[in-house]
Amino acid sequence: MLYCYRLFDRHIFSSLELKLLHRVNNNMELNHRDVLLEWSYDPVKPEGPLCAGHERWGIFILRAVEGVWAVLPQTGFAVWVPKHGTRLTVHPDLSQLANHEQSAQPCRDVANSLVTGLLSRLPSMWGEVPLHAAMLKAPEGHILLAGVSGVGKSTLSQQLARRHGWTVLDDDSCMASINEGELTITPMGGMARLRADAADRLQITGLSLSGYADGKIMVQNEPSTLLFPEKTPVVALFHLSRNNEYSAKPTSNGYITLLNTANAVTQASTIAIGLDRNSMQWRTNRFHVAAKFGKNANYFVIFNENQKPEEVTDDIEKIYAEIY
Q: Beta-carbon neighbour count of residue 108 at 10 Å?
């Protein structure tokens, strides 16, 4: 049996269930499938130079001749990703199984790790630029909340949806494409993942996810996330950063700084993710996408643990209102 899911602007067919992606109905023939994810019981030992990630992270990438190996050390599996990223194969990893069996730390389900660690980066093999950013639809256009894992993208996205009526298209990853000189942003289409304490505060319920020290739940997004994006402009990017020692007045947006064009381009380039950071194609595409983003309003947001998410999102909405 093959499951079919939405993945950015494509479909992915998988022999294992990917609960963090939206499942869709599709009857495409085998040779017309956009991406195929298969499971193999043949163990492998991935080799090659490190080209992305880190061995202590949830994923690291090894470069091979005709593609890359994506190693998921927390699960004991590795994935072969060919050059064009259209037919992926999951294998048991001989070099990781021993560590996995001896580890006392709980690990995420392998399917969840595939979605969050690998599939979110897959567009870099298609000639596109994946971004580590939440994507929301506001009345006049799209808003991106960019930042590293744990910075608060999911929490702030849910706050903006509930307090200001914005739509969460994806709370972690999206894809940037340039077609005929125009920049298009496409959400990954994954389920939202929210920290348990933030979910309690917002009175949101969902399926508990394993492998997260602070506890996380899976939140069902609105059905509109399954629609391919309209050609709606990106209104603004908010680059999120936490600073526990920064003392900002809770009700002031003085901790939100408008970036000039040069800094905006530099900052926008940092949110691009990929499977091979030395790939010339990926580096070139990242430059062009960052240059396009530099023409938008870019803001750097530094907030501390004492600021409530409601206060941060209210200030973001005020800035958005000033733009329009």
A: 21
